[in-house]
Amino acid sequence: MILTVTPNPSLDRTYEVPSLDRGEVIRATGERMDPGGKGVNVSRAVSAAGQRTVAILPLGGAPGALVADLLDAQGIEVAPVPIAGATRSNIALAESDGVLTKINAPGPELSVEEQELLLETVRVQSRDADWIACCGSLPRGLAPEWYAELVARAHAAGARIALDTSGPALLAALRERPDVVKPNAEELAEAVGRPLSTVGDAVKAAEELRERGARAVLASLGADGQLLVNDAGAWFGSAQVAAVRSNVGAGDSSLAGFLIAGGSGPKALASAVAHGAAAVQLPGSVMPTPSDLDPAAVTVTAEVPVDRVLKEPVS
Ligand SMILES: O=P(O)(O)OC[C@@]1(O)O[C@H](CO)[C@@H](O)[C@@H]1O
């Protein structure tokens, strides 16, 4: 079973607009609502793959009730933590030329009691978890060390941890040796405090995260592909993608692909790449089902193209 923890979930609202004109009233040509937050998306992708998952998330207010309804409609098992504040709504503005602008709200503040209940819910649910995926930003009230605490507790209970977060929360958690961390290129560059211009720069940054405690690093490099670095070596994976529709949730789909394929080694990387490539070709944060995957379009190699210049370098 893959357990996911999303401390700061969201009601994701996507508006399709012809173009973004600042200061103008913009009439949307389409809109959709998805239950969101990175761990929630991982659960949606795991469930779409036919594997068991439970999503732990604080839920409150009308947006929280909507998120619960949407997850229920998708058949996702949820362990909700009721909170007094209202779950945030995150907005995505998708322009017709494919450019997407996202506005992520800070989310509600969790009281000390709610934080405790969240940790207790993780403890109870983690009993039959093979993996616990801890994903996304922390809501107000949770200290940057919160994920570190969660990793320590989960390891003590014998579970493996996949962590997808950024900034101080990522850095603080490294010392507890998460089994895999999943930064994107920006998060990787931020973590090591230097720009990334080549695939080799990303390999060096991933090695540095391993030196600081991560057992494995699964880094998504956007259109360039994905990198897996662990104690056995480094692999690079990429896929042919016909047309990108939305990259919202693509990293979450990748992490789900990685975990459902065992969570280590090149086969899991190939599954991560296939899931990420399928997700970007679907609208909003729709997660792929097995029929959306095209494993034949995926290449994974141990000959990492270290000199390759990134299409989307991080300065
Ligand atoms: O603010 P965070 O927690 O970093 O990210 C939240 C979020 O952008 O991540 C998901 C896509 O990965 C969306 O469903 C959601 O809106």
UniProtKB/TrEMBL annotation:
Domain Carbohydrate kinase PfkB: 16-290
Family matches, as SUPFAM superfamilies: Ribokinase-like
A Pfam family matched in the record: PfkB
Keywords: ATP-binding, Kinase, Nucleotide-binding, Transferase
Keyword Kinase part of the UniProt annotation: yes
Transmembrane regions listed in the UniProt entry: none
Highest rank taxon of the organism: Bacteria
Family, as annotated: Belongs to the carbohydrate kinase PfkB family.
NCBIfam families for this protein: 1-PFK (TIGR03168), pfkB (TIGR03828)
Official protein name in the record: 1-phosphofructokinase
The species this protein was found in: Streptomyces plumbiresistens
Gene it is expressed from: pfkB
